[in-house]
Structure formats: structure tokens, C-alpha cells
Write a structure and sequence with these properties.
A hairpin with a 5-residue loop joins strand 24 and strand 25. The protein has four domains: about 170 residues, Molybdenum Cofactor Biosythetic Enzyme, Chain A (3-Layer(aba) Sandwich), CATH 3.40.980; about 50 residues, no CATH class; about 100 residues, Molybdopterin biosynthesis moeA protein, domain 3 (Beta Complex), CATH 2.170.190; about 70 residues, MoeA, C-terminal, domain IV (Beta-clip, Beta Barrel). The protein contains eight helices and 28 strands. It is α+β, with helices and mostly antiparallel strands. It has a six-stranded mixed sheet with strand order 16-13-17-21-20-18, with helices on both faces. Strands 19, 22, 24, 25, 26 and 28 form a six-stranded mixed sheet that branches. Strands 6-4-7 form a three-stranded antiparallel sheet, with no helix packed on it. The radius of gyration is 31 Å and the shape is elongated.
Length: about 450
């Protein structure tokens, strides 16, 4: 399963489809496996985590959640108005209004007495509709169009009939007690947590986040925070992709390994059995010390290594890898080692799949189209992804050049600019497609 890097480059869409075909089923299987032993999550704890900021990582329901109580829990008014019996207003007309005495008002949070025939009760939005009443006339349609002071013996006139059920939110019209509230696989965002609380749900079963092993390869790499030796650099890929993976809903284990196949094999063999996906950076091209390709590119289970028609991020790898003592095989997605190449590769090929599996929002980056503020050159045979930002006039400006080492320029970017194959140059004012990064 090899590909000479000097020969045909795989189109971006074809590689994205290949990654999806390998990774998506594995993420779904990992979610299902993780849900079985998972303890139910207290809804109050999920809310507390969200309030503290610790709950920003997405959570997804692993099992259907049913409503503990009906929503609404009682017939209530959709409007500020008068609760009435529709039969009492059957003969109302503009020239012959029906006049009714005003009963006791019904504020929200109070249980009113039944409404007697021939009476109208002031009712507030969300307050219970009194027993006997079957409609609400909004205050603007009454005469006078304002509520009287309680206990004044006032009357109110209605110049039109009203249908039964008007402006009444019926018991269980949103969801009945015991009915399905949220289906398995639903991401738990603000509206979903609100629905759980409203429906009296105390605990739910949430899927465990997929466990991703992130391996940065290179003898020159030093983990973050450690002192540098001669000709060494800090592991920027580990930092950038750890954060990106976590934002996409993954639980991440990071490792840094030198360009030694035995070191990489040792890391893979020592991984626990809940790792669902391996992501590597570096070691995938045609050099003399390409440790990922050298270690995993041979034998009957060899991964594919080749070039994708994209800049940056051309060298890529994809396959399965054996983990742990039992050799369980999980998907491997291998990115190039230059920091911008690795990040762009993640955005193109992996982030949408993880986000869809974990409920991260949005699963796909918001897209836009805008004119260029400056000319742009691109290799005609490649899909070029440049880093940029929108200026005050809504035009696209590049942040740095196309080089895959320009990490600080990537950090300043707010959009990824896409130049499709077949385009060699774009002039100022030409429009380009982009993805928002923030």
C-alpha cells in the first residue's frame, strides 16, 4: 500500500473520504463501548461544570433520555390576558360586545380556583389556566385593554368570539411524561440541558470522549516546558493538536518519540485498550529518518503513505496500527511534521469527523466568501490553504506567506483561505472561500 511521493497526488476530497471511511466507524464503536460501563451523569453536575467553564468540552448522550414530568406540566397561558370560557363569548360582536365581571387575577406560580361560568379572570403569561376556562383572550383585544386593580368589581368587554384552546399551552403539548426527550447521540448544549432540567431529569448517561493517542515524532523535539539542547525545538505540534483535539471533544494522551522505530513501537505497545485513534505528526515523507513510515509502512498490515494534492500538508499517512499487548488494531492518521501542515491537515481531514462524533459545535467550520485585499499566487496543481484575516472592509488579507513553518502567522490568523486546484493566481478584488477559525 505504498505511493511514490513523486507520482500521482491523491485529491483532497478523495483523501478526506478515505479518512472518514476508516475513522468514523471506529469513533462510533468507541462511543458505544465507553457507554456501557459509564456511570450516569448528574444533570446538576453537568450544569455546574458548564457554569465553571470546565464543561466546555462537548458531551453526547449515550442513551435516550425520557421526560420525568410533562412539559408543560399544566395548562398555562401563552399571553397576558383573560382566561374565559369560549362558550361565554360565542355571541360577541363589534357592535354587541359580551360584558363579563372580572374575577380574581392569576399570577404565575399560583394555583387558581376554578373559573365559574360568565366570568373572566386576568391571567399572566405562564400562569395556570383555571379549571373551567378553555381559552385566553390577550389583553390588547379586551375593553379596556388593561387590567383593573384587584377587588374593584370591574367588568371587561369582548367584541369577538374566541375558539377553545386559543393561547392555551396544553399539559404535555411539548413532551408527555415518560416520552422520549432527547435521543442517544444528542450533543448536550445549553438548550438540551435546559430541556433536561425542565422535564425533571436528574441524571443521564453520557458517552465517554474518544481517547486519542497523539504522537509527535522527531529526535529534535523536546516536550513543552523542558530546556532545549543543541539543535532542538519545542514540540509545538503536541501543544497545538492537543488543544484542537480537546476542543473537538477528544481525551488526549500525548507522547514525544525520537526517530527510532523501536521507540515508536514501545509507545504503541504500552497504550491502554481504550485508545480509539492514533494521530502522529512527522515521519511520513521520503527522507532517511521517517520513523512513522519506516515503522508502519511495511508488512501485510502496512499503512498507506503518499502525497495529497494540498499545500501545506502534502505528505500523509493512513491505516491501522496495533496497540497494547493484545495487538488490537485502531485507525492511524499520520500528519506531516511542520506545524502549519499538521494543523491544516487536522482541520481538513480529522476535525469534522471528531466533532460529528462528539457533538462539538460547529461540526464544520463556518464558511464564507470575500474579496481579496491583495493578489495571491497558488500552485495550480494543488489545493492551497492560506492563513488570513478579514480587514475592516471585509476583505481577505494574508497573515504571512504559504510556508508551513510560519506558526506565529497561523496564530494570528482568524480564517483559513481555500484556493482550489486549477487556480494559479488571484488578483486583488477576486473572491475566495474561507473557513472561520474563531
Amino acid at each position: 500500500m505504498h505511493d511514490d511521493v513523486t507520482h500521482q497526488r491523491r485529491p483532497v476530497a478523495e483523501h478526506a473520504a478515505a479518512v472518514a471511511a476508516l475513522v468514523t466507524p471506529a469513533l462510533a464503536a468507541a462511543r458505544d463501548r465507553g457507554a456501557e460501563p459509564a456511570e450516569p451523569a448528574e444533570v446538576a453536575a453537568l450544569l455546574a461544570a458548564a457554569a465553571s467553564g470546565a464543561g466546555l468540552a462537548p458531551r453526547v448522550l449515550a442513551r435516550d433520555a425520557g421526560a420525568a414530568v410533562a412539559l408543560p406540566g399544566f395548562d398555562n397561558s401563552q399571553m397576558d390576558g383573560y382566561a374565559v370560557r369560549s362558550a361565554d363569548l360565542a355571541g360577541a360582536a363589534p357592535g354587541a360586545p359580551v360584558t363579563l365581571p372580572v374575577g380574581a387575577p392569576v399570577p404565575a406560580g399560583t394555583q387558581p380556583p376554578p373559573l365559574g361560568p360568565g366570568t373572566a379572570a386576568p391571567v399572566m403569561t405562564g400562569a395556570p389556566v383555571p379549571a373551567g376556562a378553555d381559552a385566553v383572550v390577550k389583553i390588547e383585544d379586551a375593553d379596556p385593554p388593561s387590567f383593573p386593580a384587584p377587588g374593584t368589581g370591574a367588568v371587561v368587554r369582548f367584541a369577538a368570539p374566541v375558539d377553545a384552546g386559543t393561547f392555551v399551552r396544553r399539559l404535555g403539548s411539548d413532551v408527555a411524561a415518560g416520552a422520549l426527550l432527547l435521543a442517544a447521540g444528542t450533543p448536550l448544549g445549553g438548550p438540551q440541558l435546559g430541556a433536561l432540567v425542565a422535564a425533571g431529569v436528574v441524571e443521564v448517561q453520557v458517552a465517554a470522549p474518544p481517547h486519542v493517542l497523539l504522537v509527535s515524532t522527531g529526535s529534535e523535539l523536546v516536550p513543552a516546558g523542558q530546556p532545549l539542547g543543541p539543535a532542538q525545538v519545542h514540540d509545538a505540534n503536541g501543544a497545538a493538536l492537543t488543544a484542537a483535539l480537546a476542543q473537538a471533544g477528544a481525551r488526549v494522551t500525548t507522547r514525544v518519540v525520537p526517530d527510532e522505530p523501536d521507540a515508536l513501537r514501545g509507545v504503541l505497545a504500552g497504550m491502554p485498550d481504550d485508545v480509539a485513534l492514533v494521530v502522529t505528526t512527522g515521519g511520513v515523507s521520503a527522507g532517511a529518518y521517517e520513523v512513522v513510515r519506516q515503522t508502519l509502512g511495511e508488512g501485510p498490515d502496512a499503512a498507506w503513505f503518499g502525497h495529497v494534492a494540498v499545500q501545506p500538508g502534502g505528505p500523509q499517512g493512513l491505516g491501522t496500527v496495533a496497540l497494547g499487548a493484545d495487538g488490537r488494531r485502531v485507525p492511524l492518521v499520520a500528519f506531516p511534521g511542520n506545524p502549519v501542515s499538521a494543523f491544516v491537515s487536522f482541520e481538513l481531514f480529522l476535525r469534522p469527523l471528531l466533532a460529528a462524533a462528539t457533538g462539538a459545535v460547529p461540526a464544520r467550520r463556518p464558511a464564507g466568501r470575500a474579496p481579496l485585499a491583495e493578489p495571491l499566487d497558488s500552485p495550480p496543481a494543488l489545493h492551497q490553504v492560506r492563513r488570513g484575516a478579514l480587514d475592516d472592509a471585509g476583505r481577505v488579507r494574508m497573515t504571512g506567506g504559504p510556508g508551513s513553518h510560519l506558526l506565529t502567522h497561523l496564530a494570528a490568523a482568524t480564517i483559513l483561505v481555500h484556493v482550489p486546484p486549477g487556480v494559479g493566481r488571484l488578483e486583488r478584488g477576486d473572491t475566495v472561500d474561507y473557513w472561520e477559525l474563531r
